[in-house]
Write a structure and sequence with these properties.
mainly alpha
Length: about 80
């Protein structure tokens, strides 16, 4: 004796609709995560550029500070 079962078209459509809904939810979350990651990457690149600029400015100021530190201190006039 053998048994066979057939799913109705309506049942299959309902199951596929449920899976498609979950896929849509996961896809939306993935897109949101990608957008946030892109924004974080842009912010990190901007911060790195700011840090490079600050380091360049510091490199420009270091010799001036060194020269000022080497000057003899002036005695106050009374």
């Amino acid at each position: 004796m053998s048994l066979s079962a057939c799913a109705t078209q309506k049942y299959v459509d309902e199951q596929i609709a449920g899976v498609n809904s979950r896929i849509g939810t996961v896809d939306a979350k993935a897109q949101d995560a990608i957008q946030r990651a892109d924004a974080a990457s842009s912010a990190a690149q901007a911060a790195a550029a700011d840090a490079r600029n600050a380091n360049e400015r510091l490199d420009q100021l270091t010799p001036r500070v060194d020269r000022l530190e080497q000057r003899p201190a002036k005695m106050p006039r009374n």
